[in-house]
Amino acid sequence: MKLNSSDIQAMPSRRRAALINSLSGFKSANLVGTQDTAGATNLAIMSSAVHLGSHPPLLALVIRPGGEERHTLANILATRCYTLNHVSGPLIEAAHQTAARYPQHVSEFEATGLTAEWQEGLDAPMVAEAVVKLGMELREHQQLKINGTHLVIGEIVLAEFPALAMTPDGALGLAQCGTVALTGLDTYHEAIPCKRMAYAKPDLPPRQIAGTHTAASNEEYSR
After folding, report:
1. Mean of the pLDDT values across residues 170-181?
2. pLDDT band at 67 (very low <50, low <70, confident <90, very high)
3. Residue 132: strand, helix, or coil
4. 99 in helix, strand or coil?
């Protein structure tokens, strides 16, 4: 199938959204934890987290426009603090339910049965049941002229994950942690590594790194 710009624009809006949301490929699945200035907590699933740099350690979120109903964005801008919590297999149902449009006075933690966890010096709740948890501080916010979406750039100020999931070179074995991937708006995938490749150099052929983790070793981290 080939679609040009006219074909895409002519699609029914929901069908077009489902397609375009799938075309970027596998995406991260994170629960974003925030609280407002009165202390009310909020939790929302997002699939737009992207690495911007490691020094300082920066991640970006793209948040759609929506005015008053975007409680997560309002909380981040007000408190300049939030958390990113990886979704794992056991959390899929509860995580997906946080996408429901609950009134502002309803906490998605309570609505979904997930547990807010607090760390000293971090004014945003983590998800106690998550295996990988990141504390974030807002560093930059831009509203994009092209479609009104918001680019939120945060610095990782706290990271929590199983020590055994870190590889000798420092990378985090996401499959070992049970982290899942997301396609479109509603399809969750288990992460099964197939190969890990060595740093590419022009004078050497592609080389596979031995000892790539497999899904068989993931159970103790994803329970």
Report:
1. 93
2. low
3. coil
4. coil
Q: What is the CATH number of the domain that holds 76?
A: 2.30.110.10
Give, as one character, the DSSP assignment of residue 196: -
Q: Is residue 108 part of a domain?
A: yes
Contacts of residue 135, defined as CB under 8 A and 6 or more positions apart, other chains included, come to 81, 83, 119, 122, 124, 126, 156, 157, 158, 159
| Chain segment 106-154, per-residue pLDDT in tens | 999 999 999 999 999 999 999 999 999 999 999 999 999 999 999 999 9
Residue 60 belongs to domain spanning: 25-169
Q: How far apart are CA 124 and CA 36, in angstroms?
A: 9
CA atoms within 13 A on the CB side of 223: 3
pTM: 0.88
Two tokens, residue 218: 């993931």
Q: Which residue type is seen at 180?
A: V
